[in-house]
Amino acid sequence: MIRESLTATHSMTAPSNPQDTAAPTPAPLVDEGEPFASRRLQYVPITPPAPGTCVTVAPQVRWTRLPMPMELNHINVWLIELADGCVIVDTGLNVQMAKDAWLALEQELFSSLPVRAVVVTHIHPDHIGLAAWLEARYDVPVHLSPRTYELARSMVTGENQPSPAEVETFVRSHGLTDLSTIRPALDRSRLARTLSGLPHVERFLEDEKPLPAGLEAWTAMQTEGHAEGHLCLRNEAARVLISGDQVLPTISPNISFGPHTLDTNPLGSYLLSLERLHALPADTLVLPSHGLPFQGLHRRLEDLQRHHEEQLAAVTKLCVEPRTAGELLPLLFRRELKGVHLFLALGEAVAHLEYLVHAGRLERDVKDTLVRYVAVR
Length: 377
Prior knowledge:
The protein has a 6-stranded mixed β-sheet, with no helix packed on it. A 6-stranded mixed β-sheet has the order 4-5-6-7-8-9. Strands 1-2-13 form a 3-stranded antiparallel β-sheet, covered by helices on one side. The longest helix is centred in the last third of the chain and has 22 residues, at 297-318. By secondary structure, the chain is α+β, with helices and mostly antiparallel strands. The chain contains 10 helices and 17 strands.
C-alpha cells in the first residue's frame, strides 16, 4: 500500500486578506509529510528570507520568498544578477500579499538593482500568476516556454479549456460518481483569475538553448511530467540548478493525467526528466520552488525514482482484477479526499495506470464508457 505520507494534496484556502481576490486554486503538489530524503541532503545554512527581503544564496543569485494563502505557504523566487540589474525567476500568485512582498522588495532593492526581465518556469499559478503585473510595472520582457504560453493563453481566454461537462465525463469514466465536491473546482473563471493577465512574449525559451542577453551562462532544460513546458535553468559553470517544481527537497510534484493532457504518458516523461537531471554534477546546488536550497541532487533523484517504482508495483498488484482509478483511491490514499484533493489524486492514479499500460504491464478494459485496468497475464 502507498505510504500515508504520500496522500495529501495541497490546495489554497480562501484568501485571508479581502484584497486577495484571485480565486483559490490547487498548488499541484503531493505532501509527503516527513521529509523522506532530509537526512540524505545537505541544506544551505541560510535562514529563509522574510517576504520583502532577499539573501544571496549562490554567485549572482539572490533568494526571496513570497507568501501564499494556503497550507503550502510560500514560493521561493530567484533574482539572477546582471551587470545592470536583475532577472526575476517566477512570480508568485496573483494575490495582494504577494504584490505587497514585491513592493517591499522594490523599495529595498530595485532602485539599485532594477528589474530587466522575468522568467517563468511553468504554468502553475504560483509561478506565473503575477507575470503580466510585473511586466507592466517594470516595463520588462517575460520569457517562458512556448507550451507554457499556450497554456496561459488558454487559461486567460478560456479557449481550448475542457468544459466542466468534459471534465465530469473524464472523472466518471474513471469510476468516480459523486462529483459534488469537485464541481466548484471546475469553474473556468476561477482559473482565469489566478493570473494577472496574459504577458506579451517576444522571445520564447527553448530546450538546451541559452537564456537571452545577459543570461548566457544559464541554459533552459525542458523537463516534462509535472507541467507541460516546465523549465529548469542550469548554470554549468557555477553548478547551480533552478529546479522549479521538478525536484523539491521534501515533497513530490503531482504527476497527473487529465481530460486534455497532450502527453499520453506524463509519468514516463517525468521519470525520463529525472534521468536527464542525473547527468548534472552530484554537487549541484539545487534552488527549488518550495523548501530549502540543497545539495545532494543525485540522492534526491534516486529517492523520487524509487518512490514512483514502489507506487507502480503497488498499483500492479492491485490490478490483478480489473479496477478503475476511482476504485484504487481508497486503497492507495488512506485519508478522505475531497474537492481538488480528490481530482488531483485521481489524476495521479490515472498517470500511474497509463504508465503501466505503456510499459505493457496493464491493459485497459473499456465497457460502457467505464475504464478499468487489469494486469497483463
